[in-house]
Every structure is written in C-alpha cells, then in structure tokens.
Amino acid sequence: MPSRPPAPPPDAPPAPKAREAETPRPVTLRTRLLAILINALVRLICATLRF
C-alpha cells in the first residue's frame, strides 16, 4: 500500500508536458474532420435527449 501513492505523482507531470509540446503543431484535416464528427454526434445526442 505505501509504495502505490508515491508512484502516481511522478508519472502524472511528464505526460501533460509532452502533450503540451505537441499541441503547437498545425491542426490536420483528419483532426478537424474528427472534431466535426464528434460535434455532430453531440448535437444529435442532445437533440434526441430533448425529445
């Protein structure tokens, strides 16, 4: 049990830093299409929930 708590904190900080470094890259068409698709899906779900 005591070995578990110290392990997660050191692993958590490096992951977000790596992601932040990748974010500056230009948005690709694939990611744009994926975002549009997700947006459409969310809208559809919201519309169905209203009715």
Automatic annotation (TrEMBL):
Stretch list, region Disordered: 1-25
UniProt biased composition (Pro residues): 1-16
Stated name of the protein: Uncharacterized protein
